[in-house]
Amino acid sequence: MKFFLHISKQEQAQRFRERLHNPTKRWKFSVADLKMRERWGDFQKAYEDAINQCSTKHAPWHIVPANRKWFRDYVVAGTVVEALEQLKLEWPKCKDDLSRVKIK
Length: 104
Fold this sequence. Notes:
Blueprint: E1 2-6, H1 9-21, H2 31-37, H3 40-54, E2 61-65, H4 69-86
Parallel strand pairs: 1-2
């Protein structure tokens, strides 16, 4: 399963601000992130192209709004559960006849 976790440009800016102001999150920040941010539009176009070219019936991309982490997690978990349920998995059958087994 492939998930694209999409956050808005505004949300990304807010997360960068939090990283700068919160000492426990500073390790996540890199000045290089700001250079990359200048190319937001280019990256969005590249993601769009990659998703369109690499999404297939058997391996589709799932675009997930990720501004709110609780919602992102809810959507991803729900998608995984749904896929697992569609597999209709069953417990494997035991190779041995257990009808006469007694544990003392």
